[in-house]
Structures are given as C-alpha cells and as structure tokens.
Amino acid sequence: MSINSLVLKHFLSFFISVSFREAESFKEQGNAYYIKKDYSEAFNYYTKAIDMCPKNASYYGNRAATLMMLSRHREALEDSQQAVRLDDTFMKGHLREGKCHLSLGNAMAASRCFHRVLELEPDNSQAQQEVKNADSVLEYEKMAELGFEKHDFRMVVFCMDRALESASACHRFKVLKAECLAMLGRYPEAQSVASDILRMDATNGDALYVRGLCLYYEDCIDKAVQFFVQALRMAPDHEKARLACRNAKALKAKKEDGNKAFKDGNYDAAYELYSEALTIDPNNIKTNAKLFCNRGTVGSKLKKIDQAIEDCTKAVKLDETYIKAYLRRAQWYHARIWIFIGYGYDLSKHKHLLKNAQLELKKSKRKDYYKVLGVDKNATEDEIKKAYRKRALMHHPDRHSSASAEVQKEEEKKFKEVGEAFTVLSDPKKKSRYDSGHDMEDDTGNMGDFDANNIFKAFFGGGASGPGNFFFQFG
Question: What are the record keywords, sorted (predicted)?
C-alpha cells in the first residue's frame, strides 16, 4: 500500500470518528430536549445527527419518535421505515413503524410490524397489546362497513369513535364519521370534523364533500355547490360529490322555477314544479320542508285548504323548528273552521285543531334539548347520560382556555345549554312536561341563571377541585 493510500485511509478513519462523536453529541442534545418535551428542538438535533451519520438506524428511530409527538405521523412513518431498512433487527424501529401505520388507519400493516417485534422479542408486552389494538381497529372497520350498507349511521359513528382511539390521525375514519354525522342531521359536529381535516389537508376531497353535504342539508345550496365543485377539482372521480352537486343544482333550479311560477300567479304550474322538486332528494330534509310549505301555500291559493294543511304537517314533521310552517298551518286551520261555520258545522268540534297548531308553534320556539344533546326523543336514560357526558366534556370552558375570546364565549354558551338540556331530560317529570309543550321556566324559574358547573360537578363527582380533574378525558 502506498504512503498516499495510508494517509487517505487514516484521514477517512479520523473523519468518520469525529463525525460519529459529533453526531452522538447532537443525539444526546436531542434526547435532552425530548425529555423536556421540547420536541421541535429535539427534532432539529436529531436531524443534525442524521446529517452527520446518515446510516445510523437509531437516529432515524429517535427522530421518528419525536415526529410522532409532533403529530407528524406520515413523516414519522418514513423515518421509522428508513430505520428498519438500515437495521432489520432494530426492534424500536419496527414498533414505531407499526404505531405510525396504526395511527394512520392501516391496521394490517401495523399488525405485520408488531408481529415482527414479537419475532425479535416474543415477550414484548407493548407489541402484544398493540397487536390487540390493531385487531380491534380491523374489527371496527368491518362493523362500520356493514353499518353503512344498512344505513345504520349511529353504529358507524360508534365504530369510528372506537377505531380513532388507536388510529387518531386517520383522515379516512374521520371523514366516514363526519359523513354519517351529516346523515344523522348532526351538522355542526360533522362540519367540525371536516374542518379539522381541511386545516391539515386543504386538498382532501372527501372532507370538502362532507362540508358541502352539511351545507346542502342545511339548505345553503349555493355554498354547498361551491364545495362539491372544489371536491371534484381535487378528486375528479368522486362520485358522491358529483351526484350531490347534480342534485343540488337540480333542486335549486326546480325550486326557483316554482317560486317564479307562484309570483306570476301560475299556481297550477307552481304546484307541479314544487312536487317535482320533492322527488329529487328525499334525504334533504330542510329543503323539502320548505318545498312542502311552499306547495301548501300554493294549495291554499287553489282553495285546497285540506291539502295545504297536510303539506304543512309534512313540513313540520321533517323540520320541527320550522316556525313559518306552523304559522301557515294555524292560519289554514282557522280558515277551515270559518268554512265549517259557513256550512253550519259545530265550531266546538274543530277548536282542537287550532289549539294543536298553537301548541306546536309554542314548542317550536323553545330550545330543542334533544338536538342540544344529540339524541332522539326515544333516547333512554343511559343514552341521555352518555350524551351529556360527551357534550359537557366537549364544550367545557377549561378545554377552550387557549382559544380566542369569541370561541370561548360560544363554547361557554354551548356548555350552559348542555347543562340545561340534561337538567330537563334526565328528570322524568320535567321531560314529560317538556315533551307536552309546557314552558320549563314555569317549573324551574329562570333557566338562564342556573350554574352549569354545578350540574357538571354533580354528574362527574368533581368535588371542590372542579372539572380540572377531567382533563385526561378530553383527548
């Protein structure tokens, strides 16, 4: 070997040694920041270590762990995969790869990684538990798929909530949950889930579709179409967005045609156009409620009072908060009574019709406590308690202490409404009176003055320390 070759060999050996020592120093600094939970700085130092020694598996493994703490699961997955490519016996690398796969919703890939850990260390308790978690996610996926096929949207939401406990970063699960919340009429929750996804991924076609779906079902058709069009730009093959966009445009056009015919005094044509619009999408409850009410108005112009009353009844069955439909129905009940009087009918036989309409109108103006808790009118006592638990924790002011003043105010209002709803619906006597249309302030005094925190403490047993004890449940 020549002198030059020896010099070069010693120089390379010296350089590698220095680089390794410097990389180890960066790693140790990264570890120190990781322990202090300063994950951004830990990431920077692990990156410096990788730059010095790009073939060291443990450096990638450490950076993957940091990225997981920063909720950057896709980047963490890449680092953990690089770690096991460099060293297939690197147990922590396989474990972290599996956890990333699971967080992202790929339970089958996660299971393979965890089983590889068990090949390396059969008694690894963490890997054993993670295998069970992966199996559970797979099972919930299957149950959700069956539930969606059967239109059992409550079941799907339940399954996705359970799956997301392990797969917290899975946009696919979140979108499916949001879509089913929209189908259940729980639009604010669905919008919130979709918005969270879009903040992280503005190009997510599924989330854009769900945002549009919520607006569509809330009768904000123009805005809905904008979201559907945007979803199709991001995902041109998105069939659900394409169908919803087509229905939304058709529904708007047919309704506007009906409105124009009515204004022109062409009542027969308006009646037909509203009837045709009602066949476009039976799932669009709010728009269809308006269409029934509009058709009822046309019916009254055509002297079809019974038909007008029937259409308004259909409208309020679809949307119990639709005050205009109650008012018009009451008006036409009254008109029918005078028709009966004109024909010599006994007025006392028909007073109950007007009284019923007035009661329904009064009920429609109250807060809908069932909607506040997200339960239906046949909810059991246990379902009401579970719903209160979920909504109270979701809207508790302590959870939103770092939010803007506007958001804090809104969440405090919602927290108070949840307490009001639980106070009424958890008490059989109050619930019965509420269901029958009585004004609850007559029974409980001014509901606006009650302390929602007292309800919260009584429910959770918070004692003197207050709701701060429940931070661990917020997630």
Answer: Acetylation, Chaperone, Cytoplasm, Cytoskeleton, Nucleus, Phosphoprotein, Repeat, Signal, TPR repeat
